[in-house]
Amino acid sequence: MSKRIDVKDLNVYYSKFLAVEDVNINIEARSVTAFIGPSGCGKSTFLRTLNRMHEVIPGARVEGEVLLDGDNLYDSAVDPVSVRGQIGMVFQRPNPFPTMSIRDNVLAGVKLNNRRISKSDADSLVEKSLQGANLWNEVKDRLGRPGSGLSGGQQQRLCIARAIAVSPQVILMDEPCSALDPISTLAIEDLINELKSEYTVVIVTHNMQQAARVSDKTAFFNIAGTGKPGKLIEYGDTTTIFNKPAVQATEDYVSGRFG
Amino acid sequence: MAANQTLQRRQSHLTRGHLPSYAVWVVLAASVVLGAALATLIGFSVVGWAVITAIVFVITATIVTAVAEGERKAKDRLVTFLVYGAFLIALLPLVSVLWTVLERGVPGLNYNFLFTSMNGVTGAVDNQALENGTPVLGGAYHAVVGTLQITLWATLISVPIGLLTAVYLVEYGAGRGLTKAITFFVDVMTGIPSIVAGLFAAALFSLLFGPGTRTGFVAAVALSVLMIPVVVRSTEEMLKIVPNELREASYALGVRKWRTITKVVIPTAISGIASGVTLSIARVIGETAPILVTAGFASSINMNVFSGWMSTLPTFIYYQILTPTSPTSPDPSTQRAWAAALLLILMVMLLNLVARFVARMFAPKTSR
Questions:
Q1: In a domain? residue A160
Q2: Would residue B154 be called left, alpha or beta, if left means φ above 0 and alpha means ψ between -120 and 50 degrees?
Q3: Chain A within 8 Å of B243 (Cβ-Cβ)?
């Protein structure tokens, strides 16, 4: 249960502004891929094109192909909603639904779509998802309490549980630890390591040590200057990117000489 | 000086002269006495006393502070006094209105008033009640029924239209020409005088069902013209403050847009929407003019909003004051009018309490 992603000649636009130019990348199934690069270089924008969340913003559009196991996500007949059902997403700031309990948050993907689910199935789905997100032991006694009462790190793991409860093929994470303390970050990183046995994980991060710790492959994005489009500079095995990068800009960035 | 030495405490250079906390009260007491004296000089009255005391107190206290504590503290104190003064002045009319309505309304607020109509109550009945000293007959039951019915129907019309308009404005129409047009016309509608709304509804219904069509429902339409912009505005504000992250979280789970709106956005904003709706009801429940031209005036109970004239509490008050049931002795009518005014205020207060309760009931839970 996980699929690979192949991106071909992808250009991403906000109205007329070209934000990311000409990306070609192959993301393998059951692996962790990290996107690194300076702020504003289009990592998050590119990540959001992988599950068609990009077009939620008015005026945003895409040229090129994103293939999920060979199926083009941007085919005109494709329903973006079904794409998002297969490619889940975790955001920068934890965003549990404030009106729902912890249990209902985990079941949100099922309940919001009005899919019928028996109580015993729901119970086992909640337990499985929360255990998958390493949160079960902390919240099993208070599943009926509001999700917004948890700590930031717990909320983020709740959001991961919510994302894996709809059993996606791919999980995208947009700087999932940037609002968290080191202990919670460690918990999320451990979780990412476990998730990759079942899912394809793509993570955007500003923290290069984090990229080095969790990812199998790393993609370095850069931008030539403000107003210019972001580009994929180099993509390869994480150890190669951090130890022997082929491009000087990557070397400068990962060694901290950048800017 | 060596690093391990500790400085001894000395007379502080950081503090300055400081008035003891009772100083203000002493000045106040002196001002009250002085105020009384000055007020007596120009002819004593409680109002004059209060005004002079206030002026003397503010000036003296500021000067005393300026001398003892310095200019900055004096300014602080002066502005504090002015703010409290403004608050008291703003409170005066409210307290005065409440007091007057309570004083004159409570005697008329009895079983008869609440549960009988004005049907069969003539000037002769009022005169007799005055002569014999028996309780005043006749009441506002029909007006209470009319108020509740007309407001209910106005709410039933306005809430769906207003809610859906706001959903369109916030969720679908961002940046479109239609959105700008709707926003503009909603703003214009907010400023429509209520009598114009009444005339509009009256004209519309005479066009559709023949001239002189006056029923409770026509009045409800007139009130909804006034209510819709308020509902749209408040709902729009509430939907706007729902964080975009929640919508995105929902989309990312593969949830459709309209489901996201009905199951995530509206539930998150429901407490604000509910209190906005309640406040818009409170806004129209006291309308008089549009009711007069659309529902006419009735003195007997009419439960059917779709046929026959109706009256509401405001029109009831209006007619009781303007054309007393007994022209020779208007006192019973006046008493009924004040009782109706008190009842109306109580209803609006109750609505506000309900709004708060509803808001609290629906509010997102954050407790641990």
A1: no
A2: alpha
A3: yes
pLDDT at B151: 94
Task: Check CB contact of B260 with chain A, cutoff 8 Å.
Answer: yes
Q: Taking all residues of chain B, what is their mean pLDDT, rounded to a whole number?
A: 88
In a domain, residue A159? The reply is no
Q: How many domains does chain A have?
A: 1
Model confidence at B368, pLDDT cuts 50, 70, 90, reads very low
Q: What angle do CA B101, B102, B106 make, to 5 degrees?
A: 115
- Using a CB–CB cutoff of 8 Å, tell me whether B363 touches chain A: no
* HEC sequence for A111-123: HCCCCCCCHHHHH
Suggest the residue from A95, A102, A142 to mutate for an interface test with chain B (most B CBs closer than 10 A). A95
**The predicted structure's pLDDT at residue B11:** 65
Please check whether residue A166 touches B, CB under 8 A.
yes
Pairwise pLDDT comparison (B362 vs B334), residue with the higher score: B334
Instruction: Determine the pLDDT at residue B367.
Output: 46
Which pLDDT band holds residue B1 (cuts at 50, 70, 90)? low
Residue B13 has pLDDT above 70, yes or no: no
Q: Cα distance from B270 to chain A (closest Cα, Å)? A: 10
CB contact under 8 A, A149 and B251: no
CATH at residue A90? 3.40.50.300
Chain B: residue whose CA lies nearest to A54: B248
Q: Per-residue pLDDT tens for B226-250?
A: 999 999 999 999 999 999 999 999 9
Contact B253 A109 (CB under 8 A): yes
pLDDT of B200 reads: 94
Are residues B245 and A112, on separate chains, in Cβ contact within 8 Å? no
Could you say which of B253, B366, B367 has the minimum Cβ distance to residue A112? B253
Which range marks the domain in which residue A31 is found? 5-97+170-255
Domain positions in chain B:
2-107, 141-361
Chain B positions in Cβ-Cβ contact with residue A89 (cut-off 8 Å): 248, 252
For residues B243-270, average pLDDT: 91
Cβ pair A109:B254 closer than 8 A: yes
The ranges of chain A with pLDDT < 70 are 1, 258-259
Q: Using CB atoms and an 8 Å cut-off, which of residues 214-243 of chain A contact chain B?
A: none
Inter-residue long-range contacts of B201-205, CB under 8 Å, 24+ positions, other chains counted: B201/B225, B201/B290, B201/B294, B202/B293, B202/B294, B205/B294
Say whether residue B248 is in contact with chain A using an 8 A CB cutoff. yes
What CA–CA distances, in Å, run from B256 to A22, A113, A114, B251?
A: 30, 8, 11, 7
pLDDT value for A11: 92
Fold observed for domain B141-361: MetI-like fold (1.10.3720)
- ipTM exceeding 0.85? yes
Q: Are B364 and A148 in contact (CB under 8 A)?
A: yes
pLDDT tier at B92 (50, 70, 90 boundaries)?
Answer: very high
| Chain B residue with the nearest C-alpha to that of A172 | B252
A93 contacts in B (CB within 8 Å)? 245
